[in-house]
Write a structure and sequence with these properties.
GO terms for molecular function: delta(3,5)-delta(2,4)-dienoyl-CoA isomerase activity. By secondary structure, this protein is an alpha/beta fold. The chain contains eleven helices and ten strands. The strands form two sheets. Strands 1-2-3-5-7-10 form a six-stranded mixed β-sheet, sandwiched between helices. Strands 4-6-8-9 form a four-stranded mixed β-sheet.
């Protein structure tokens, strides 16, 4: 499977189980902080894995013991996207920044639009961009030492690449969301679990990664037609009225239920054996 991928500079991509890809941010010496080339490369990786028939679920984590990511590399950004504009005209400067933000948003959104479920593993410092990335994913697990913060107000901006749009839908507690976004206060793993931000808390980073791979392997054992359809329909229904979700589900399954996977799943259950499904 690795032979089907080009080399990547800022991320490690491995395949710990059949049909499972593990993407790891590889910048531990800088607390896995991101600069522009990194989020562009991450989009390339996720888009590639989304189309790869040998991948059915993705785990995303950060290298090292200190941080999943501390967010934007502010020093690099001050020399790039947050630095002086190439124009003194305010409208043109704003137009340039809107394009940058839209591209950054699209890179983060690659996790959400990925056809395959994405499980994020957080540990240590998980600030700013960590929340953007994790809310764009499908499942979140973390280590007990994780420290979270929606950090953007501390650097003078409103979070602009996903957190403010997605976190309220993930957690469902608007007052809590406003509190952590307006104060940038640090909160821990147990609070994240209590409000529903993370699915589970493990004692160590290794245990959290192992848990994510276990979940990904379980997902990968299911029909890829059913799994991809379920992710698509859940995400659509989250953002649309119930009747629209029901109508879209009917149209989607009108085609998807014609798959041979339905017969394979039913027969394997009756025969008490593990089903096998063709690549998609």
């Amino acid at each position: 499977m690795a032979s089907q991928l080009p080399p990547f500079k800022h991320f490690n991509v491995t395949f710990p189980q059949e049909y499972v890809a593990h993407v790891e941010t590889n910048r531990a010496d800088k607390m896995n902080s991101f600069f522009e080339a990194m989020w562009v490369e991450l989009r390339t990786i996720i888009d590639t894995l989304s189309r790869l028939p040998t991948v059915r679920a993705i785990v995303f984590s950060g290298a090292g013991d200190r941080a999943f990511t501390t967010g934007l590399d502010v020093k690099a950004a001050s020399q790039g996207i947050l630095g002086p504009s190439s124009t003194t005209d305010a409208a043109r400067a704003a137009s340039q920044m809107r394009r940058v933000i839209a591209d950054f948003q699209d890179c983060v959104s690659s996790l959400e639009r990925c056809e395959k479920p994405v499980i994020v593993v957080m540990h240590g410092y998980s600030f700013g961009l960590a929340i953007d990335l994790s809310t764009a994913a499908d499942i979140r697990v973390c280590a007990r030492d994780t420290k979270f913060s929606v950090k953007e107000v501390d650097i003078g901006i409103a979070a602009d690449v996903g957190t403010l749009s997605r976190l309220p839908k993930v957690v469902g507690n608007y007052g809590w969301v406003k509190e952590v976004c307006l104060t940038a206060r640090v909160f821990g793993a147990e609070e994240a679990l209590r409000v529903g931000f993370v699915n589970s808390v493990l004692d160590t980073k290794k245990q959290a990664v192992d848990k994510a791979i276990e979940l990904a392997s379980l997902i990968a054992s299911k029909s890829p037609v059913a799994v991809q359809g379920t992710k698509e329909l859940l995400d659509f229904s989250r953002d649309h009225p119930v009747q629209d979700g029901l109508r879209y589900t009917g149209v989607w399954n009108g085609a998807a239920t014609q798959t041979k996977d339905v017969t394979s799943a039913i027969l394997s259950g009756l025969e008490k054996r593990a089903p096998t499904f063709e690549k998609l």
